[in-house]
Amino acid sequence: MINGIVRAGTLILLALVAAHAHAQTLTVLASLDGSSGNNPCGRLTLVGNTLYGTALVGGVYGYGTVFSVPVSGGSPTVLTSFNGNNGAEPYGGLILDGNTLYGTTGYGDIGFNGDKWSGYGEVFALNLNSTPSPPPSPCLALAPSGC
């Protein structure tokens, strides 16, 4: 059974233990690298053979991500990257209803003014049937020739 999530830098560490085992073995299933998120928090949600979670910060805009990782391990897949206007710093875990994950952010959305801790937060929904598309590069808005 999955016993819990431990934050250690940008690593997701899961304790996989037998029901009455005395020794616990930690196995690294995935490492977050900043672009996929940083500081994972909240409970993971298991859907089939995939774990879904949130990272408090990181991602394209630095305001957090929703990511997935196969239970067999591997690279995390970013499902969405918060930009402040659509929420910032996802707190807590995710819950599943049908094919939709629900969660909350602590900041962003209404009242967001560009300051990391502005805005009132939100409740968000993420449909697992939709294919994530990469967010636009912030460089496009800064320079006509890109970065």
Q: Can you offer a commentary on this structure?
A:
With 147 residues, the protein is an all-beta fold. The chain has one domain. The chain contains one helix and ten strands; from the N terminus they run ββββββββββα. The strands form three sheets. The chain has a four-stranded antiparallel sheet, with no helix packed on it. A three-stranded antiparallel sheet has the order 1-2-3, with no helix packed on it. Strands 8-9-10 form a three-stranded antiparallel sheet, with no helix packed on it. The radius of gyration is 16 Å and the shape is globular. The N and C termini lie far apart (45 Å). The N terminus and C terminus are likely disordered.
Secondary-structure element string = EEEEEEEEEEH
The radius of gyration computed from the alpha-carbon positions, rounded to a whole number of angstroms, is 16 Å
Strand percentage = over 45%
- The tally of structural domains comes to 1
Could you say which overall geometry the principal axes of the C-alpha atoms support? Answer: globular
Distance between the first and last residues' Cα: 45 Å
Structural class: mainly beta
Number of helices: 1
| Helix content, binned percent | under 10%
Q: Largest sheet, described in full?
A: 4 strands, antiparallel
Number of beta-strand segments: 10
If you average the pLDDT, what whole number results? 79
* Lateral arrangement of strands in the main beta sheet: 4-5-6-7
Low-pLDDT runs = 1-19, 133-147
Secondary structure topology:
Layout: E1 2-8, E2 11-16, E3 25-31, E4 38-47, E5 50-57, E6 65-70, E7 77-81, E8 88-97, E9 100-107, E10 122-127, H1 139-142
Antiparallel strand pairs: 1-2, 2-3, 4-5, 5-6, 6-7, 8-9, 9-10
